[in-house]
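ESCALATION

Customer reports they have been waiting on this structure for their group meeting. Please prioritize. Original submission:
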Amino acid sequence: MAKSVIKALFQGEQVVTESSPEAKELYDKSRFGTLKSNGQVVLSLLEACYLVEKKRLEVYTASGRKKLSFDDLVKKAKRLNRQFLVKYAVFSDIRNRGYIIKTALKFGADFRVYDRGIKPGEDHARWVVFPVNEADTLTWHEFAAKNRVAHSTKKKLLIGVVDEEGDVSYWECRWVKP
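Update from on-call: job pushed to the front of the queue and completed.
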């Protein structure tokens, strides 16, 4: 049975779904977005792009008159964050692998990732993730800062390296005491 498409409106830096059983199920089962008391789900642009690409979501302009394509959403997101495509490559790859991935700004990281089968609120995330473009460089100071964030939050550090084709390789790093 095909899942019905959820309708949503683009509102600045986020997308807000209709209040529907399908939107609530999207939150309950897969932890996309944040559930509001009125039954709507507030999605990040990463989540919205992913769901549009998977044909689970239709996003319209704030007025509701024009449907936005995946490319339209990506253009808007890139205007807000020039690293959007690198972050999206990591976000979608991790979601496609069956993990729940959420923002981790309060931890000082881009994302936090939960083990398969674990939902936010049930247990802690296993990793903090920093997406990087393979052409970028990290200084030892920047690398140490990322590792310190992971260590201080009792999570493993995962660096998601995105190549020119959009493929992602992961490097797990951690403190080791000799």
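Sent to customer with the following note: The mean pLDDT is 92.
Escalation resolved.
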